Amino acid sequence: MTSSVTVRVPGKVNLQLSVGPLRDDGYHDLVNVFHAVSLFDEVTAVEAATLTVRVEGDSAGLVPLDGDNLAIRAARALAARAGRPYGAELVIRKSIPVAGGMAGGSADAAAALVACDRLWGLGLTQRDLLDIAADLGSDVPFALLGGTAVGTGRGEMLTPLPVRGTFFWVFALADGGLSTPQVYGECDRLREAAGERACWPALSDQLAAALRDGDAPGLGKSLVNDLQPAAIMLRRSLARTLQVGRDRGALGALVSGSGPTCAFLAESAEHALDLSVALKSACRAVVSGYGPVPGAVVV
Ligand code: C5P
After folding, report:
1. Which top EC class is named for this enzyme in its record (predicted)?
2. How many domains does the chain have?
3. What is the spatial distance between Cα 251 and Cα 294, in angstroms, rounded to a whole number?
């Protein structure tokens, strides 16, 4: 009988985040190109009578341990689906920035689903897990899938995109997080103030072609994030961070998701190192990585 299961799960950067109109349910219709990158959290589910969570790592103090913890909610949803009061101690080791726009909380929820499914011997299909994931949050299904995929609806309806090769990234981490609902709200406010109407978003052909061809300069030119002006409005220092990376020759520079992490596309692993050095003085910390990588897997 398995007494513990560990799952490794990646963070993501959004290569295209096109925000459409606000829907009646409070969400926005999106075209959201997710790209899983090699910043990983690990979630271990250990046999226990009740459901509890513990977080390890530098930013552990920033992660909620109550009902707001998405990993606990994921385990609870899975137990409810199985119709049994299963327990587990979830131990989360964090490397993905907390509230950083890289879907770290969503990644932990996806990892908790995979770990508890195995620990409890449920054997659910990926389709079942994706359905539970979509109810937990818009970014949770992608963390199960990984790779590169376009999300439509509120981001939860996923279609994998073909990608050639590997892209090298540098991430500038900021102090503190940004609230996702607040950033979406600011995006609506800015659009209203400018008299702009949100148009119906579509996948960028240029972006899809660059991914398919492994064309890093082409990808750099087609990166787009409609939430970026809102994130910068709420955190002015991000504009300077982005400029430092651009001045150092980043192929592309953008706020990741709702921020405040900034992502820079490098020409190569060597260029990523050069960018990392340049960015050190323009943010709290710098990490580099590559993508795409697979989604949540048992290790
Ligand atoms: O789905 P999730 O819980 O991650 O979303 C967090 C918040 O982000 C939502 O409550 C909403 O304010 C905003 N959001 C949105 N449109 C989306 C996804 C998220 O407005 N497609």
Report:
1. transferase
2. 2
3. 24
